[in-house]
Design goal:
homodimer, 775 residues, alpha+beta, Beta-galactosidase, Chain A, domain 5, eleven-stranded antiparallel β-sheet, glycosyltransferase activity (chains A, B), transferase (chains A, B), Glyco_hydro_65_C (chains A, B)
Chain lengths: 775, 775
């Protein structure tokens, strides 16, 4: 693996750089992002820099600028500090910079930046550190320490800078700015269309040689700006320390009185600032430890530290970007950048939900509740397209919004006509993806409460959509689904996409089961849902349709056609487009309409299908399709590599599995400069856990039962991980000799190569892996 | 005089700098602003820089962001060029920069920037040049020439960059982007509230060693961005030249079909780009010469070039910032920056209009027509305040908008309560200022057409407002005006401000004359205006009020009280606040409420009154008030210095007059870094002409007659200037011996020290000045 950041053999929680490279700033801003799911900020420097992307977001606070689709507004900045030494503004592009180091501690979320700045024969040492609290979701704390070998004058301007925007689209209306008690700087603002109110507070504490000073800030206000200014003369070797406490609240916050927000948020900051930086960091670190690292424990023993760094980084970013509020979901880029406008896609269900379902089921439940709240929007979308039931949006923002995919993309620069973005109209598989993730959640957790309150309804409503979506082909007496985009987005307007048709039928099959189950077991619920969804009539449709839904079958060579047209298209050599250091490399050679006519795949729909429904395909069919589609796949998506790696593990293709694993780990951490500049690939983070635990760790759901069939990579000595299964904690340990499965809490049952093992409560079972491997 | 830019003894049209100083960038962006009255752009560098203020405006295209008052939107940028040499992005903060020179040619409006950039042992020479055409008001042309002593690769990205805003307030909705004919890059946008449509076009021509190349741009589009990219390998000493042609049109443009704007603007650019850079520059320079330099001719013979540079700079900026469209006016900062939101104030009438009235009366007429169109807004404002007639807005944008002064300023940072901006409510003298300027215009031009169509109506409507504004004091049987702000803005809520009361009475006196005049001479107009303004009733009010309007009279010492309270306030030593290198210096010592209780003046109302109505005050009263108020005036406004200088000239205080003149010339060109950062002081530009021609040149209107009584400064050998008077061109030449007045066209009459001189058509008259001085 090759990363753009340094790692540390002895500390798998470290990522850092030792030189300041202006070309890397956007990428590093993303990689060293700090957040707690509620809010987050890119790792920009405290002082402004050319070409920086200074973003801070609060999850779920969407707003629409006139003529644009809704997006997550970039908020007033609270991390700014502009420093002058002897009236020279600190800038890494002036003077000489030595001993530069910037790094992120993944374990406690602390970002540090240290360097010596040499000007006028003075060596001035700067140590910056900061974190977004995991304990108090509204709190951000930051610190700068300055020392010099000579006397210096230090001036600092720091406060709240609302001169921020989403690439110059401005969502925020300017509100009042004021100072409370001569100490607490406050600014209010409000989104211009969704009218979400925000309040930001900042206070500073200034120390000289660790002694708290009484300096009052000299205030400066500008448009959308309010700053405190400090001016201190320092002797040689004295230490100047400024600690900045800041918090953010919104009118969307739960249990919060929006009218009193201005006052109560100041009280909260008063209370927080009674503690010093270190105390608050420790409180936050304890929550990271308890709520994240313990629950999602994964340990890889290997001479190479990068696999452990990768899984730590993935879990860090998942934690930093996942809101704990059912009205909010995880954006495709989390809250790490403006990319995809903060919208959520199937990325959540297909790539990130397994991690939460198996480690923090309460988070998974929140994320699925978001879809339940989204039924309103899904009904809107179905109606708008002349369908029934719940057609979930391709891109989602506020749950009730429905579809938020931009309708039109850039104009075709030659014809001048704007190009329609088809995903919002015809990339319809997301409705199935949600049901698949939801079934996994219910199987893994046995959460009957969720099933009855939300899960069953989503399944039935989704199947109602699919039923209305089917097209009857009288000539062949079958139901088809034509004119869609499958997960392979290279192919627009295809008919009978294997993935879409298969999962649509599966949804209807599930709905039939659910219908019968609740009718039998829960008549009250049945009556309720029948009222809501006109179930009896809908059930009739399902029964009529289900066995006639056309699903492509393996051909003579065992290959399942991706769609009606795919196999008849031209075959070309795809290998030169499989280079991992270019985005959309293939588009340098062909345009979309040419690509549409070739057997070239962005991500292989059929292989995804096989991964998700592994028990429904024979090994021979799996291998045939692997051999057919993998060479034709460019992996020009951050989504496919992890799926292919897991499938390769399943098929015993250890080298391929590991190669794909490494490529996937490099999605963001790798050396490609442009790739993470606009934000992180959250699905790839989910994918790292999936490859590690589901692929190499072999942990899967097999017909509702727990299956553990590890495929330990050659250069790993052991792999340990922990999951939640039906309310129990299951600890799994794999090395070259043994698979040990321990149950904490109730006992559990698992399958391993066809055999069922019972693990008693608070006990463990060992299975010889070395033998298994040669069977 | 001390300027922040270099001047050239031999070329009074040159301002430039020879070193690149990051602290100066905003100030130089303003000083080297380029415009043609229709559009204009700050002198930012082609490549982005930290802390730059990249502004381009089209006059009068106001828009309001939600919760904010209307302002001039910062538009998509058309001057950008990002260059890479051997893949190193050009930045003046990397590598070594030598032979740096940036300068503006005031004569033809061309901005040039040259330097050597030394990277990797290669010396790369850059020559940038650009201009906003004075011939085609929609056209901007720019050029970069690159040569190197070694082989280099040159990459250029250039196009239209809509990622601009007003300090992050975004007015523009993103529109279509496209390429026409593989060459013409186009972007549309539209203001979000006022729905003014814009179209921007760019094309490039690329030359190697002067040979036109056929390179097609590789297009890149981003949010609000569309760029062409060029990539050329150059041999040592070969010359790379890229010429950028750009134009801008709006749906406000006259004689323009907004529906066809997209196509016709491309046709216009096609046509323009048939000519090369030099040809277009020459065409533009010819218009500068004919329309500006010849008409406003002023020549100062002196060993010091700075006075000539100052008057050239002032006239350059006035020309670059004055729209030729009666729906638009000159902003207090023109279109040179975001300061004052592009709004127009009394600055236009009191400080800039004399220049236009006497050199380009057609422009003056446009500017006064703007106020006529503004009657609708002025009625709105009067109604809102329970007055009658036309109360002109303190700050004006679209004529019909009425008042656009922000209602609330920043919050008081201690109490947290927002502070009311009182000027929009009680700084009411602007209604008089408009009438004063209008009378001067009518006297100087004899424009009867204007008088009958607009001028008389404005006077009557303004007087109708003043009549409704007067407050009857029964005890003393007088009419008062209480609770106002005069031009001295240090004093809020004063009663019977001398300037306000005097000019209000004067307005009513003028209106009475106008009433009688039109009733007698123009019954049709009388009937019309009587219908509109209910004149008969209003006239009755005027007659009842006019002789009872209280106007402060000179006291025993000859001093006229600024207002009822002023003379009883505490007297302090103001000298330490008179330093010209600080803005609002006095506020570092006192707050507004303290200043309100002291005899300290921002600009002296009474002296302004004496300047405007010189024939109404005796020399003794003038001198008494000068001696009383000048020492109490901080000149913490760009407006007062020129008035005081002229008055000092009148009073024979030659040294003081010249000192104030120099300080006024330094308003923008001086060394104070912050002063012009947000835009130029347009009134100070008008002031430079006023001091030169009205002060030293002694050209004035005396009871409707032309008076010429020069006061040539000691270090000036001669002063020549040209004005328009009643349709004739009058050329005035003054040296230490003679004043020569020449009439081109009809003959003219002028007064000099009580004596009337007749100048026959196309002839001249000489008056001995040396004798006069000793009389």
């Amino acid at each position: 693996m090759k990363f753009c950041v340094n790692t540390d053999k002895k500390n798998s929680w470290y990522i850092g750089v030792n030189n300041y490279d202006p070309k890397m700033i956007n990428k590093l801003e993303t990689l060293m992002f700090q957040g707690n799911g509620y809010m987050g900020m890119r790792a920009v420097s405290e002082e402004r820099q050319l070409n920086e992307r200074r973003n801070m977001f609060v999850s779920g606070t969407f707003d629409a600028f006139p003529s644009e689709v809704t997006e997550l507004p970039n908020l007033p900045d609270i991390l700014n500090m502009e420093i002058q030494i002897d009236d020279m503004p600190l800038s890494l592009s002036t003077g000489r910079v030595e001993n530069y180091q910037k790094s992120l501690n993944l374990k406690n979320g602390e970002l540090t930046r240290n360097f010596d700045w040499i000007i006028n024969d003075k060596r001035v040492n700067f140590k910056y550190s900061r974190f977004v609290s995991m304990k108090d979701k509204h709190l951000f704390v930051s610190k700068v320490e300055i020392t010099s070998d000579k006397d210096i004058n230090v001036k600092v301007q720091s406060g709240i800078d609302g001169q921020q925007s989403n690439s110059e689209t401005q969502h925020m209306m300017e509100g009042d700015k004021r100072l409370y008690d001569g100490k607490f700087i406050q600014m209010k603002s409000e989104t211009q269309q969704s009218h979400i109110k925000f309040v930001f507070n900042v206070r500073h504490k200034l120390y000289v040689d660790e002694v708290l000073m009484g300096n009052k800030p000299y205030m400066k206000m500008g448009r959308r700006q309010i700053f405190g200014n400090y001016d201190v003369d320092m002797k040689a070797n004295q230490k100047f320390t400024l600690v900045k406490y800041a918090n953010v609240y919104t009118s969307m916050d739960e249990h919060h009185n929006a009218d009193k927000m201005a006052e109560s948020s100041v009280d909260d900051l008063k209370f927080a600032s009674l503690s010093n930086y270190k105390e608050l960091l420790q409180k936050s670190a304890r929550v990271w430890n308890q709520n994240i690292w313990k629950k999602s424990f994964v340990q890889i023993e290997s001479d190479d530290v990068m696999p452990q760094v990768s899984i730590n980084f993935a879990r860090y970013q998942l934690a930093a970007n996942t809101p704990h509020d059912p009205r909010k979901n995880i954006g495709a880029k989390g809250i790490t950048g403006e990319g995809y406008k903060g919208h959520s896609f199937w990325d959540t269900e297909t790539f990130m939900l397994p991690y939460y379902t198996f480690t923090m089921p309460e988070v998974a439940r929140n994320l699925l509740t978001y879809r339940y709240l989204g039924l309103e929007g899904a009904h809107k979308k179905a109606l708008a397209n002349n369908y029934k039931g719940a057609q979930f949006p391709w891109e989602a923002a506020h749950p009730a919004d429905g579809e938020t995919t931009p309708l039109w993309g850039s104009a075709d620069i030659v014809t001048g006509k704007p190009m329609k973005i088809w995903s919002g109209f015809i990339e319809q598989h997301i409705t199935s993806d949600i049901v698949i993730a939801l079934m996994d959640y219910m199987n893994a957790t046995g959460d009957h409460d969720f099933a009855e309150k939300m899960g069953f309804e989503i399944i039935l409503d989704a199947a109602k959509f699919w039923s209305s979506r089917l097209e009857y082909n009288q000539a062949q007496d079958i139901y088809e689904i034509n004119d869609v985009i499958g997960p392979d987005e290279y192919k627009e307007h295809v008919n009978n996409n294997a993935y879409t048709n298969f999962t649509a039928r599966w949804c209807i099959q599930k709905a039939i089961k659910v219908y019968n189950l609740i009718k039998e077991d829960n008549p009250a619920l049945y009556v309720d849902l029948n009222d809501k969804l006109n179930l009896k009539k809908t059930y009739g449709d399902w029964i009529k349709q289900v066995n006639k839904i056309y699903v492509p079958q393996p051909n003579a060579d065992g290959v399942i056609a991706e769609d009606d047209q795919y196999l008849s298209k031209k075959i070309i050599d795809v290998s030169k487009f499989k280079v991992n250091d270019q985005i959309s490399n293939v588009f340098k050679y062909y345009n979309l309409s040419q690509i549409n006519d070739m057997q070239i795949t962005k991500q292989a729909d059929v292989l995804l299908l096989i991964y998700l429904f592994e028990d429904m395909f024979t090994d021979k069919v799996k291998m045939s399709n692997w051999n057919y589609y993998e060479p034709k796949t460019t992996h020009d998506s951050s989504l496919s590599l992890s799926i292919h790696s897991i499938l390769a593990s399943d098929l015993g293709l250890a080298d391929e599995a590991y190669k794909l694993y490494e490529m996937s780990c490099e999605t963001d951490l790798g050396v490609h400069v442009g790739k993470a500049a606009q934000g992180l690939h959250m699905a790839a983070c989910g994918g790292v856990w999936n490859m590690t635990v589901q692929g190499f760790g072999g942990m899967r759901i097999d017909n509702g039962r727990l299956k553990i069939e590890p495929h330990l990579p050659d250069n790993w000595k052991s792999l340990k991980y922990q999951i939640q299964w039906q309310g129990s904690t299951v600890k799994v340990s794999v090395d070259n000799e043994n698979l040990v499965v321990e149950a904490v809490g109730k006992g559990v049952e698992f399958i391993n190569h066809g055999q069922t093992y019972q693990v008693a409560a608070n006990s463990n079972v060992a299975v010889e892996t070395s033998v298994e491997e040669f069977v």
